[in-house]
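debug: dumping io for the single-chain case to check the tokenizer round-trip. Nothing else runs in this session.
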Amino acid sequence: MEKSGIIVGSMLGATVILLALAFVMIPPPSISPPEIVVSNGHSPSTVGEETPLSLGKDLSLVQIFERAETGVVRVNIQRSDVASSNGVGSGFVFDKSGHVITNAHVVENSDKVVVTFLDGRSYNAEVVGTDPSTDISVIRVDADPSLLKPLLIGDSSNLKVGMQVAAIGNPFGLSGTMTSGIVSALERLLPQESGFSIPDVIQTDAAINPGNSGGPLLNSRGEVIGINTAIQSATGEFTGVGFAVPSNTIAKIVPKLISDGTYHHPWVGIAGRDINPDLANILHLTDARGFLIVNVVEGSPADKAGLKGSSETKEVNGIEYLIGGDVVLSVDGNVVRKIDDILIHLQRYKSVGDEMVLEVLRDGRVTNFVVKLDERPDSG
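debug: decoded output
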């Protein structure tokens, strides 16, 4: 039996195995500019009188920790449900209004949330908004303003494999712990129990353990470029593969959670499979790339746009393939190698109500279909 899996819930006392697949995306609504610290990767903005330690310059690990430690908090959860458990996670200060970012799974089903700052002072927190589809939650504390040290939010689109990163959090409840490593891979899909998954996720070898969930992943300038969310492990402890939801997703989701308490995700309504060499031969494709639509959900944006799913089967080497459906070749002019490319495009650039152009191969002819994105239905 396969024992390894994606573990979302590196939150002390609450480990969850996830086995699924999805997509998200929102444009950032406006929030009072002085309250948000956001960096474009070159000239970080500041809050109030504070001055960043560097302006686009690489820092030592010591400097990264000293710069960020006051903005990282411990998140304690109390639950009365006997099926759940109390736990410890991490979080980081987002703005001077007391908003703190953590993982949705950290505060899920919580009866009480307590945030503890570096100096040991603790405050009860309220859950302002939660988006399980990206595993992001915003909580708020009415804390002493002197404790609110927002971290700079960097641009995760500038990341490259091999770049140095550091994670700060509370592994096993050990507050103020930093680990370091590199970006191991980009544009991963992180499965979830909902049947959807988080696209565009950062993979890192910086050690992440139970209790790190919700803490920041920082680049060499001390900017947040991700929120530590999951590990891949057979034991429930770190084995060299960790995952962080990128900062550009945070920048899109969090303002909406603060203003509305929720975020509505766009939806296409197709299911299928990536083109492999056998399918490429069956479909007479030059290259084994693209996405074959097998099913189109009735009433979905894809259905309304006229996209078509598979209608027949063909056997190759003892394997039956559903064929006859449209093959997606590009999205808004960008080549589609596999489903990941569609999901990442939705994540980065699209929201409910937007139009998306799919270039499709049907019956040997290439046709463009315009899909108007609706709100994704509740997976529950």
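debug: round-trip ok. The chain has a mean pLDDT of 83.
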